[in-house]
């Protein structure tokens, strides 16, 4: 079948965008990303294992990747930068060492008490806490605000703030020894950086969400799969990373206009009515369907060409 596509006016240009980052080859054949803005992070390892695929690894293995103040800040900075990075089309989020993350750094939590004690008045104390909470919320919401799909790859354990974090990701995968724990009630608090807001939308069963959040019991990989928290379970971390990178790569080969508009629309639709969401995508696509990607991808389908290359976005 031949399809005439009005491609005149579309400049099928090679990307001339200025280089945003430099890839540095390492001995392992993985490229360490040097992004615009901050070039490296103290608590995160950022690499480019496949074309257009970034991997962000939580990297405090000695402390089981507990989220300390620096890591909270760097997560927000990193995902905000990747949102802007035209060389990034999909992101794999993983943890280094023994497990994915042990949640918030409990030493930081304990440091809060003397800080609050400096203030006598409840309103002044509350103001300090409010700023903390909102800045931590924003750090994790950066995963969701980032237009590039985020694929969380969880090995061994994902505790407390880790669950807040992965529920802000697009997809979740885990190893067969993995467990998830909404641990906040065990440290005497209601979760406040995403789990209570997003987990009910992810796994659907309100009853199960409440059980997990009130009891802080562990949910193991088989139950995480059955409940829909994760899409797939893998034998071990190595096999999981390999396969999740493969999924990310398949996303990165598609039109960035199509994928990123899809993410924006899915996030919007989760929080709005069907009609509001239909209006929203109609408004987006009245522009996006004029993109060169639409013409190129459609022609690729018609001509059965699986190797259409899309310009950077
Ligand atoms: C505005 C706030 C919003 C956010 C709220 C978030 C809330 C939460 O995240 S609640 C959950 C907090 N996390 C925990 O309660 C988990 C604590 N850790 C553990 O229970 C165990 O470490 C674990 C079962 C995960 C693993 O046990 P394992 O025996 O394998 O390891 P450990 O010997 O316990 O730990 C090894 C070293 O890591 C340090 N560490 C572990 N977790 C944390 C942590 N959350 N914060 C700080 N440090 C942690 C542990 O102290 C060991 O360090 P070292 O003694 O120097 O070897």
UniProtKB/TrEMBL annotation:
Single GO BP term: fatty acid metabolic process
Subcellular location: Peroxisome
Source domain of life: Eukaryota
Keywords (A to Z) from UniProt: Acetylation, Fatty acid metabolism, Isomerase, Lipid metabolism, Peroxisome
A GO-annotated cellular component: peroxisome
Principal location class: other
CDD domains the record matches: crotonase-like
Similarity comment text for this entry: Belongs to the enoyl-CoA hydratase/isomerase family.
Cited function: Isomerization of 3-trans,5-cis-dienoyl-CoA to 2-trans,4-trans-dienoyl-CoA.
Protein known as: Delta(3,5)-Delta(2,4)-dienoyl-CoA isomerase, mitochondrial
Lineage per the UniProt record: Eukaryota, Metazoa, Ecdysozoa, Arthropoda, Hexapoda
């Amino acid at each position: 079948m031949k399809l005439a596509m009005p491609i005149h006016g579309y400049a099928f240009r090679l990307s001339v965008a200025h280089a945003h980052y430099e890839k540095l080859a390492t001995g392992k054949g993985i490229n360490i990303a040097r992004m615009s803005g901050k070039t490296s992070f103290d608590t995160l390892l950022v690499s480019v294992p496949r074309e257009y695929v970034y991997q962000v690894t939580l990297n405090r293995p000695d402390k089981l990747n507990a989220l300390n103040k620096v890591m909270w800040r760097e997560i927000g900075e990193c995902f905000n930068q990747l949102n802007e990075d035209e060389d990034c089309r999909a992101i794999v989020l993983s943890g280094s060492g023994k497990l994915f993350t042990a949640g918030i750094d409990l030493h930081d939590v304990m440091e809060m008490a003397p800080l609050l004690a400096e203030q006598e008045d409840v309103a002044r104390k509350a103001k300090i806490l409010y700023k903390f909470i909102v800045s931590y919320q924003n750090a994790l919401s950066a995963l969701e605000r980032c237009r590039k799909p985020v694929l969380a790859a969880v090995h061994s354990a994902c505790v407390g703030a880790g669950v807040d974090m992965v529920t802000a990701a697009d997809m979740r995968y885990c190893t067969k020894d993995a467990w998830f724990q909404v641990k906040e009630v065990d440290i005497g608090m209601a979760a406040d950086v995403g789990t209570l807001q997003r987990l009910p939308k992810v796994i659907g069963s309100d009853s199960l969400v409440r059980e997990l959040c009130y009891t802080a019991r562990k949910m193991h990989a088989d139950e995480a799969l059955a409940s829909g928290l994760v899409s797939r379970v893998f034998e071990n971390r190595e096999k999981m990373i390999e396969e999740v990178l493969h999924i990310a790569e398949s996303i990165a080969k598609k039109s960035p206009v199509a994928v990123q508009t899809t993410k924006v629309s899915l996030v919007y639709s989760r929080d709005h009515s069907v009609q509001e969401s239909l209006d929203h995508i109609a408004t987006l696509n009245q522009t996006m369907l004029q993109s060169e990607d639409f013409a190129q991808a459609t022609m690729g389908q018609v001509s059965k060409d699986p190797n259409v290359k899309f310009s950077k976005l």
